[in-house]
Amino acid sequence: MQLLADRYQPQQSLGKKAGRQTWLARDLHTQELVVVKLLTFSHDFEWDDLKLFEREAATLRSLSHPAIPQYLDFFEFDSDDRKGFALVQTYIEAQSLEQHLKSGRTFSELEVKQLAKELLEILGYLHDRQPPVI
After folding, report:
1. How far, in Å, CA of 50 to CA of 38, rounded?
2. pLDDT averaged over the chain?
3. Which of 15, 85, 112, 114 is the most buried (most CB within 10 A)?
């Protein structure tokens, strides 16, 4: 995958579904790892997809919470092989719950309670927004 916006160098694919791709990339201006979400104009593209993508970017831009990735950039791209929009956000390095479970990791009752508490704090933050995000 080629350089995006003369700044973001894709390193590794994190996910893919119809018309969307998510990449771990290096920001060549800061040397930080970031997440770049791409919405491409493909054969199954619908304008509602773009509206939702723009809403995701606007919502992320309005949030400020240490457990939620921060908005960094939003831009249109047009390369030889694809056209679309990109949303760039901070990368929070961590294993997913699925990765923990596949590795055989188990959680104590105390760890589960702590995780639930942290998730509820995030949900409370999102719900208290005006208008609520969830």
Report:
1. 11
2. 93
3. 85
CA dist 4 → 63, 79, 117 (Å): 24, 9, 38
- Max avg pLDDT among 1-5, 69-73, 77-81: 69-73
Q: Do residues 32 and 58 both lie within one domain?
A: yes
Domain limits for position 130: 94-134
Q: Do both 89 and 105 map to the same domain? A: no
Note the pLDDT of residue 69. Answer: 96
Q: What is the pLDDT of residues 90-124, one digit of tens each?
A: 999 999 889 999 999 999 999 999 999 999 999 99
**Same domain for 130 and 70:** no
Query: For residue 88, what are the β-bridge partners?
Result: 36, 73
Which tokens sit at 112? 């589960």
